[in-house]
Design a protein that fits this description.
There is one protein chain. This protein is an alpha/beta fold. Helix content is 42%, strand content 16%. The chain contains 9 helices and 10 strands. The strands form 2 sheets. Strands 1, 2, 3, 6, 7, 8, 9 and 10 form an 8-stranded mixed sheet that branches. Helix 8 runs antiparallel to helix 9 (218-239). The chain is globular, with a radius of gyration of 17 Å.
Length: 240
Amino acid sequence: MDPVIEIVNRSNQRGGRMLSVVDLLAAGTLERTQAAWLLARILRCASFLVGARPGGAGKTAVMGALLTMLPAGERVRLATRGTGWESSQPGDCIVAYEIGRGHYEAYVWGERLVRMTALGQAGCRIVTNLHADTLDQAREQIVDQCGATERGLAAFDTFIPIRTRGRGYRMERVVGEIQWYDGQGWRAFDPGAHEPDPVQVAIGAFLDDCAAGGVRTIEAVRGAWLEALPAIVAARTRSA
């Protein structure tokens, strides 16, 4: 099995199948412009941190859907015992299922989280989620409680908050104002004021094709994504 798909499916604690980016678009959790922008950042090796305070808000679903869109050949390691993640090299992707104190698989806290952020600063892609609605709440856990630095927080590159409304099966889950680090500070991504570049246009077309063709599962979306990537990446070259 593709190691990316294996790690995403392994995170499933609620039954059913894991959701794809196409599913999240259909559900209204992600906007098309958000999805295209996020996937373009992932192609540029960005890390990401998904946040929401309530349980069941869809943090793992969003994280897994985005992980499914990693490029081919990127080594992915789960931040758990026996995987050797602590010695990851630049270009590797390290995945923790959550920032938290619980003794669950691939949870990171304290020294383990500090080590993860240090690897992010050294050139690894780092991906996880946590119970936080805002970047300040994430900072409280990552910097103040666990002892990572501001640079360690910035190593996550992209903070993706999920807003919720309702309860149980009636809960609506929507990605809110995404924050990203530009090397100087954190900035908000505004889909309404954003002009997509050629790569994002190509990604948007890819997502439309998947939706129209009924390509929905993470396995099918990843397969189609890897097949389409050469043409998507070429859009960047043509625009240069």
